[in-house]
């Protein structure tokens, strides 16, 4: 979808979600991060991470060092010194201010900008609105809510067009499926 950072759930607190903390890594306060940037380690370029917890609280943490580790990124964050502190960040979203993001580029989109768009088939049938995006091992999936909830793979085979001005996403999808 884009070679730039893109979040699954849209803006988190003051910015755009670029990933979430999957859990602690080791015993010295490192965390495992599921990054939504391409490449995954691109999340380390941002000097301030706005951490938003599922329960509410927000704070800013700074990555001190990090690297790619398989499908994840591992990072040491300033002020997080042990496994317990790292574990407390599990499931927190990582966001950065939109002003720090580069332009998405031609025919590329930040996922956050797609949320709320109407999803229509190539035949013009409205399926509903894009509610959120779920990361799966195979590919991201759009969760579209209309007269019923549909899960559509977010892959070029099905994604045929995006018009952010009209807030519309066109998909090649059978409306009866």
Structural account:
- It contains 2 helices and 14 strands; from the N terminus they run E-E-E-E-E-E-E-H-E-H-E-E-E-E-E-E.
- With 177 residues, it is mainly beta.
- The protein has 2 domains: 11-99, Elongation Factor Tu (Ef-tu), domain 3 (Beta Barrel); 115-171, Roll (SH3 type barrels).
- The strands form 2 sheets. Strands 1, 2, 3, 4, 5, 6, 7 and 8 form an 8-stranded antiparallel sheet that branches. A 6-stranded mixed sheet has the order 12-11-10-9-14-13, with no helix packed on it.
- Strand 2 and strand 3 form a beta hairpin.
- Residues 1-13 have low confidence and may be disordered.
Give the tally of β-strands: 14
Could you say how many structural domains there are in total? 2
Predict the CATH topology of the largest domain: Elongation Factor Tu (Ef-tu), domain 3
Instruction: Give the DSSP E fraction (strand runs of 2 or more residues).
Output: 35-45%
Q: Point out poorly predicted stretches.
A: 1-13
Total number of helices: 2
Task: Determine the N-to-C terminus distance.
Answer: 23 Å
- Per CATH, the architecture of the largest domain is Beta Barrel
What can be said about the biggest beta sheet? 8 strands, antiparallel
Tell me the structural class: mainly beta
Q: What percent of residues adopt helix (DSSP H or I)?
A: under 10%
Rough outline:
elongated
